[in-house]
Design a protein that fits this description.
Layout: H1 4-18, H2 21-26, H3 35-45, E1 49-53, H4 61-73, E2 77-82, H5 85-99, E3 104-108, E4 111-113, E5 119-123, H6 124-133, E6 141-146, H7 159-167, E7 173-178, H8 184-195, E8 198-202, E9 210-216, E10 219-222, H9 230-238, H10 249-258, H11 295-304, E11 310-313, H12 317-329, H13 337-350, H14 356-361, H15 364-371, E12 375-378, H16 384-395, E13 401-404, E14 418-421, E15 425-427, E16 432-434, H17 437-444, E17 456-461, H18 468-476, H19 490-509, H20 513-542, H21 550-585, E18 590-594, E19 601-607, E20 618-621, E21 626-628, E22 642-643, H22 655-670, H23 690-706, H24 715-742, H25 745-759, E23 763-765, E24 771-773, H26 775-780, H27 788-796, H28 805-812, H29 833-855, H30 869-876, H31 881-885, H32 892-910, H33 917-930, H34 933-936
Length: 942
């Protein structure tokens, strides 16, 4: 029992709390704040900034809402920034319902609603642009809430978050909301440096406990024994004084049965019986190969266990669509007749503005059939309207099962009772890679709806070869740091110099989180260098030879090995050179036999390619496929075996046309028609250093045999120590270089960026020698994006002159579009001559710019991508969505997303100083032409 003094202090504290704004805020919500929420809110009321790092669904947004409450009561503005437009839309509607539509505004790249309101929701890029432009909307700004601030690590957009944090006026209080990261204290220390006093509030606690299961065939098994939640497993994993969480022995037995030689349990033993939390009798899982449960069967099982609604993550758009189709084909219904009527009405209203043809192009019937059953896909390839309908209906409990790609985990508020992961690896564009603990936590964090569910459930589908210990490691690991992706860009550098001058800009950039992390890492690197230098001394003692200098002998061995490898590579290079010469010499009509690769077999050359390094002639294979052949398809030189005549108007577009020509090739081979007689020929290209290299190799071998250490009985043992010493010395030298490079690394990059800008006359020294933006530099200040300087260079060359609105829209896609897969085909032909001229200027300027960037050791500006130009041209001319997407591999959702980004860059054009009024008007017309129909429409507008 407390003492009278303690009770008096507690009463006094309660009385003081009643008079605070936090107390008033608490009276407006219908739940009691968690300790971490209270801690974050108090920091804001006391005038400090705050970083709140907590799991998905923990309620960290409450701290942001309290910042808005403070702003409104103090007569200040509050900006709420998000990383994606969909989340901005969602927050705008939430806040409008709470504080009234007259007090809440929305600003995204293509939307402006009530922009001067007291509370404005916006994408982070919009705020960055405001800060550089000195926008009047910033007047009376008191608070900025940065939601999903861990986006700072995004390699494409992360720098924007740091720019905003650095450039916000000092008096503005910042509330940063982040997913749980393992270096929150480090990030908070940086915020404290650049923003002033900042509290770091970290909560690992999930308000809704999460249970981890593995679905093995028809059985749903717990991953851990003893009713261990994921949170408890993580605590035990991070505490060195406690045992690791124990994995279900049934899963370990299954793994060992499939891996009789290599399976290791890692558990405390098989004596613990698995306790299923959800129904059904205990059964031993069958050993050996397990039959996987189908998707409809899994949903029926989850439904029977009261584990719906569920999100199943499938790392493939096609896989998500196929999953819905499988459920429809299995006649799976998760909705009641009343819910079906509601769903039908909602779908009809959401798509009332669309034509029948467009709905057919969008596979509306497939989407609709899944929707009324309570099942849908959710991925970036879907039309935004369809996705918004799914998000709204899922949050209302009408959709019970969603098959989604990982993009759903990025911010959108769609919590579920259960989350299912079909696999624990994904394709990253180059190869299949395991998902990280951070990604696993982000995905499974959707499970468990606060205020609705008592507990959440994460289910991993068993696959043959799956190691349950690895799954347990993913579920219990909490080491995923937030690393800066910041680097100075052309636009950023020009804006900084315009506002602060080059010297102060340099100092400002050195306050970035990237430099903060680099400086901190130098301390650790220096420690490693000292440790490795000590180890080197031991290695050198161990390699000492009584017969002579073993360091010298080891250097001879390494040099000999390197020369022998080089000789081998030279032989490969000669083969590649011979192949390139042969490909350059091919002419249309030559019939060739390709020895290897996917094009192996007979083919006829359709179009030559005289590229000096990597010729890739166009061919038609005997099975009628259009391909390109390169040096990787050959193992040396190549001679035509026969020759045919290519029809004058052959285009290859018609299957019959290709079939007929392939038949002609086969006939020529049967009849043994002779190949053409070569004229001229090429000089043989060979490695002139081959003979000298052979002499060098012989000399090294002779010196090695005559060295005193060659006769040592412990020679190979000394050699092993010498190899270790050499590798460690090499590693230590690299560390020393890292230390030198990281000290002032961001400022050094800024200097190189300024050198490029000065070369192209976007910056120039004034009378006192200080760099200032030129007239062209003032234009660059208003251009944001990955290809900002490229666009500025082309504007200076008038590359958009003479284009009509559709042509302008088409050409501008080249500056924003990023295809999902690299295009290996020929460059697309532009639909008009004016567009072709514009593209030629664009490509020329990119070539010049990238050469200059390489010279200054800067990352190269991404090459223009022309794959969307024709489709956007058609759309801007009024084509239907069906006609627009014909002949492309674009999904409707992708097209809409790139169309909106095209509108963004066209809108930037209108704000460029000194732009020709006629071009400005054309940009306006292009925006109107693109922003129509499905591009403009949102379900939130209803």
């Amino acid at each position: 029992m407390s003492s009278p003094a303690e009770r008096y202090i507690a009463a006094k504290a309660r009385a003081a709390h009643v008079s605070t704004e936090l107390s008033a805020f608490e009276n407006t919500v219908d739940f009691e704040l968690d300790p971490f929420q209270t801690q974050g809110c108090r920091a804001l009321e006391e005038g400090r900034g705050v970083l709140v790092a907590a799991p998905t669904g923990a309620g960290k947004t409450v701290v942001g809402e309290f910042a808005i409450h403070l702003a409104l009561t103090r007569g200040k503005k509050a900006f709420y920034t998000t990383p994606i437009k969909a989340l901005s839309n969602q927050k705008f509607h939430e806040f409008s319902r709470r504080w009234g539509s007259d007090r809440v505004g929305l600003l995204t790249g293509d939307t402006s609603v009530n922009s001067e309101a007291d509370v404005v929701v916006m994408t982070t890029e919009v705020l960055r642009n405001m800060l550089y432009a000195g926008s009047s909307t910033l007047a009376n700004l008191g608070f900025v809430i940065m939601d999903e601030v861990h986006y700072l690590a995004d390699r494409f957009r992360g720098a924007v978050w740091e720019e905003v944090i650095i450039h916000l006026p000092e008096h503005v209080q910042l509330a940063s909301l982040s997913a749980t990261v393992s270096n929150a204290e480090e990030f908070g220390a940086w915020l404290d440096d650049v923003r002033g006093s900042t509290d770091v509030v970290v909560s690992e606690h999930r308000p809704v406990p999460l249970w981890q299961h593995v679905q093995v065939g028809p059985q749903l098994l717990d991953l851990f024994v003893d009713d261990t939640t994921v949170e408890e497993a993580a605590q035990r994993h991070s505490d060195k004084h406690r045992d690791e969480p124990e994995v279900n022995p049934e899963l370990l037995r299954l793994f060992r049965a499939q891996h009789p030689r290599g399976g290791r349990s890692g558990g405390r033993g098989p004596g613990h019986r698995n306790r299923r939390r959800h129904g059904g009798r205990h059964q031993e899982p069958r050993t050996g190969r397990q039959e996987r449960i189908s998707r409809p069967q899994l949903l029926r099982r989850l439904d029977a266990e009261a584990l719906l609604p569920a999100i199943t993550f499938i790392f493939s758009r096609a896989g998500c669509d196929a999953a819905v189709a499988q459920c429809v084909a299995a006649d799976l219904w998760l909705t009641t007749p009343q819910e079906q009527r509601t769903l039908r009405a909602f779908a009809a209203e959401a798509t009332a503005h669309m034509s029948t043809a467009d709905l057919a192009a969008l596979n509306y019937e497939d989407w609709y059939q899944g929707l009324i059953r309570g099942i849908s896909a959710h991925h970036a390839g879907m039309l935004p309207v369809f996705k918004e309908v799914v998000e709204q209906l899922f949050s209302e409990g009408l959709i019970k099962a969603v098959f989604a790609t990982e993009t759903l985990a990025l911010g959108i508020n769609m919590p579920a009772r259960s989350v299912v992961l079909e696999r624990l690896d994904k394709f990253n564009g180059e190869a299949r890679v395991d998902i990280t603990p951070g990604e696993y936590t982000q995905l499974t964090g959707r499970a468990g709806r606060r205020g609705i569910d008592v507990e959440g459930h994460a289910v991993v589908l068993w696959r043959d070869g799956m190691n349950p210990q690895a799954v347990a490691g993913l579920a219990s690991t909490r080491t995923y740091p937030l690393n800066s992706s910041f680097r100075p860009t052309y636009n950023m550098s020009t804006n900084l110099i315009a506002r602060y001058g080059a010297k102060r800009s340099r100092s400002i950039l050195e306050t970035s989180f990237a430099q903060f992390q680099a400086d901190r890492s130098v301390v650790g690197l220096a420690k490693r260098v000292r440790s490795q230098e000590k180890t080197l001394e031991g290695y050198r003692d161990a390699m000492t030879c009584h017969l002579g200098d073993f360091t010298e002998y080891a250097a001879l061995r390494r040099e000999l090995t390197a020369e022998e490898k080089s000789a081998s590579k030279s032989r490969s290079a000669r083969q590649r050179n011979d192949a390139a010469v042969a490909l350059q010499d091919l002419l249309p009509g030559d019939v060739i036999e390709i020895p290897q690769g996917r094009n192996a077999g007979w083919a006829v050359v359709l179009r030559e390619d005289a590229h000096p390094f990597d010729p890739r002639p166009h061919i038609l294979t005997v099975d009628g496929k259009l391909r390109r052949v390169g040096v990787n398809d050959l193992d040396g030189s190549l001679e035509p075996e026969s020759r045919i005549r290519i029809p004058k108007h052959f285009s290859g577009k018609s299957p019959q046309e290709r079939k007929d020509l392939a038949a002609t090739v086969r006939a020529a081979l049967r009849e043994h028609r002779p190949a053409r007689t070569r004229s001229g020929g090429h000089a043989i290209r060979f490695d002139r250093g081959t003979s000298a290299r052979d002499h060098r190799i012989e000399d090294l071998r002779r010196r090695l045999r005559s060295h005193p250490c060659h006769g040592c009985s412990d020679r190979e043992q000394h050699a092993r120590w010498a190899e270790r010493a050499w590798k460690l010395e090499k590693d230590t030298q690299a560390l020393r270089k890292q230390i030198a490079g990281r000290t002032g690394s961001i400022a050094a990059t800024f200097d190189r960026v300024c050198a490029v800008l000065t070369h192209f006359e976007y910056l120039s020294p004034d009378e006192s020698g200080h760099l200032q933006p030129t007239a062209a530099g003032e234009q660059l200040r208003r251009l944001y994006g990955e290809r900002d300087l490229l666009l500025a260079l082309c504007l200076r060359d008038g590359f958009l002159d003479g284009l009509d609105a559709p042509g302008l829209a088409g050409v501008m896609t080249a500056l924003v579009y990023r295809p999902r897969r690299e295009d290996q085909g020929a460059r697309p032909k532009m639909p008009t001559a004016h567009m072709e001229e514009s593209v030629q200027i664009l490509l020329h300027n990119w070539s010049v710019l990238s050469a200059r960037e390489a010279e200054h050791r800067l990352p190269l500006t991404a090459a223009p991508e022309l794959g969307l130009a024709d489709a956007m041209y058609r759309w801007a001319r009024g084509a239907t969505l069906t006609r627009t997407l014909t002949g492309t591999d674009l999904a409707a959702g992708d097209f809409v997303r790139w169309a909106k980004q095209t509108v963004d860059v066209l809108d930037q054009l209108r704000g460029v100083e000194g732009l020709d009024p006629e071009l400005r008007e054309t940009a306006h017309r292009a925006i109107e032409a693109v922003r129509r129909g499905v591009v403009e429409y949102s379900v939130f507008d209803q």
